[in-house]
């Protein structure tokens, strides 16, 4: 007789399955699909989508196959159609997942997914232009960077920014769920948490990056540089009559152009940091910052002015 007494291991496992399958005890169940064969959300496919999109924008840096410097088109065509296939299925899955009351028809979801897929691929040249400015800003802003190529393949801030711009583009055209999956994978990989709903301008530079948090309604201007541990967060939440946070409220900071925010500073609430402001490290900021203002630690004996 084994450790389960009179019950065999099979009987114990069958009993556990019976309890797991009891719908009365299920508080969270993935939204059901309307027909067999509908695509499922896949973290592996999402990673492939990001890799393919990045590879199309920066050929040769992430491709598993060798790409000729003189004839990259053939590989890029193959990669683009593979991106189209994966993205279409994952957008379909996202739309099914979000259709909690099962009100959509398969045809409408497939048509919408096809439209979103083509829209996103059409945006890739524009996204590359933005990311090239991010790469240049990172290279010029970090004396330790030896080349833009090093920045592209090594820097976590650039990697997180690439994922953010891909996720933000998908969110902008109306794709649900998938943008957040992309941003959270980048968060896991780099330690940098950028919500896809944030709005970030050109030539964005995250130095080092670990612990950076940028909230969903944050707005960041052009030529902004932030260091590790910076948080652009919410100070408080508007609550409804049931004491639950109200969704969609603009609750994160607005950062102007040409702003520098040093390490481990926390900026909270819907406040504005004006153009050209410099905010020192380890500060807690909950009031607006004027254009050109410089914030530093208060004790002049321990901290020099910037």
- Adjacency order of strands in the biggest sheet: 1-4-7-10-13
Major sheet attributes: 5 strands, parallel
> How far apart lie the N and C ends?
75 Å
* Model regions low in confidence, pLDDT < 50 over at least 5 residues: none
Count of distinct strands: 14
Strand fraction: 5-15%
Give the averaged pLDDT, no decimals.
90
Main structural class:
alpha/beta
Q: Radius of gyration from the CA trace?
A: 23 Å
- What is the H/E order? HHHHHHHEEEEEEEEEEEEEE
Number of H/I helices: 7
Shape: globular
Helix content: 40-55%
Structure description:
With about 300 residues, this protein is of the alpha/beta class. It has helices at about 10-20, 45-55, 75-100, 105-140, 150-155, 155-175, 180-190, and strands spanning about 195, 200, 205, 215, 220, 225, 230-235, 255, 260, 265-270, 270-275, 280, 285, 295. The protein is about 40% helix and about 10% strand. It has a 5-stranded parallel β-sheet with strand order 1-4-7-10-13. The chain has a 5-stranded parallel β-sheet with strand order 3-6-9-12-14. It starts with 8 loop residues before the first helix and ends in an 11-residue tail after the last strand. The model has no long low-confidence stretch (mean pLDDT about 90).
């Amino acid at each position: 007789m084994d450790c389960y007494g009179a019950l065999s291991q099979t009987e114990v496992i069958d009993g556990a399955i019976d309890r797991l399958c009891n719908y009365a005890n299920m508080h969270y169940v993935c939204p059901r699909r309307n027909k067999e064969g509908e695509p499922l959300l896949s973290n592996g496919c999402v990673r492939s989508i990001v890799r393919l999109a990045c590879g199309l924008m920066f050929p040769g840096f992430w491709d598993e196959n060798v790409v000729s410097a003189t004839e990259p088109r053939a590989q890029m065509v193959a990669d683009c159609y593979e991106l189209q296939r994966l993205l279409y299925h994952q957008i379909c899955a996202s739309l099914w997942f979000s259709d909690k009351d099962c009100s959509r028809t398969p045809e409408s979801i497939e048509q919408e997914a096809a439209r979103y897929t083509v829209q996103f691929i059409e945006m890739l040249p524009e996204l590359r232009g933005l990311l090239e400015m991010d790469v240049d800003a990172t290279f010029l802003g970090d004396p330790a960077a030896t080349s833009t190529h090093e920045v592209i393949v090594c820097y976590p801030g650039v990697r997180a920014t690439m994922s953010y711009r891909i996720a933000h583009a998908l969110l902008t055209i109306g794709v649900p769920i998938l943008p957040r999956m992309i941003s959270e994978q980048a968060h896991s990989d780099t330690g940098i948490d950028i919500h896809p709903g944030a709005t970030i301008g050109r030539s964005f530079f995250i130095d080092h990056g670990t612990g950076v948090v940028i909230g969903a309604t944050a707005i960041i201007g052009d030529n902004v540089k932030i260091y590790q541990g910076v948080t652009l967060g919410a100070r408080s939440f508007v609550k409804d009559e049931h004491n639950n946070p109200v969704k969609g409220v603009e609750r994160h900071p607005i950062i102007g152009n040409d702003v520098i925010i040093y390490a481990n500073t926390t900026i909270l609430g819907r406040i504005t940091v004006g153009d050209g402001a410099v905010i020192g490290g380890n500060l807690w900021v909950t009031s607006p910052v004027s254009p050109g203002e410089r914030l530093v630690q208060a004790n002049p004996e321990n901290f020099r002015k910037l």
